[in-house]
UniProtKB/TrEMBL annotation:
Gene source species: Actinoallomurus iriomotensis
Residue span(s) of domain ABM: 2-95
Transmembrane segment boundaries: none
GO molecular function, one term: catalytic activity
Name the UniProt record assigns to this protein: ABM domain-containing protein
Source organism superkingdom: Bacteria
Gene3D superfamilies named among the record's database cross-references: 3.30.70.100
SUPFAM superfamilies, per database record: Dimeric alpha+beta barrel (SSF54909)
């Protein structure tokens, strides 16, 4: 499995609302068009109304690469910057867990 955690910080509340709309449209397509994307969870951070944390888990690196090539992902990547003041990415290597076959 292949995964990452991304923390996005939006510029302001209006940007956060617009970002959430962009995310919702993207996740709809991920659900229907990406069988290799096992988990794509978008979270608000308690006490930090401008932050969003994504947890992404893919079957393997090829599934992640396929995700990156999707038109909905390219649209998200092209448009997200206008709403954000910061992006932090942590790449993950699965050691063990429940529901992960690890």
């Amino acid at each position: 499995m292949f995964g990452l955690v991304v923390r996005f910080t939006c510029k302001d509340q209006a940007s956060a609302e617009a970002f959430d709309g962009l995310v919702a449209a993207t996740v709809d397509k991920i659900r229907t068009d990406e069988p290799g994307t096992l988990v794509y969870a978008v979270n608000r951070v308690d006490g930090e109304p401008l932050q969003r944390v994504f947890y992404e888990l893919y079957r393997d690196r090829a599934a992640f690469d396929a995700h990156e090539e999707q038109e909905h992902t390219k649209k998200f990547l092209a448009e997200r910057g206008q709403y954000l003041s910061a992006t932090e990415v942590d790449w993950l290597t699965l050691l063990t867990g429940k529901g992960t076959d690890g």
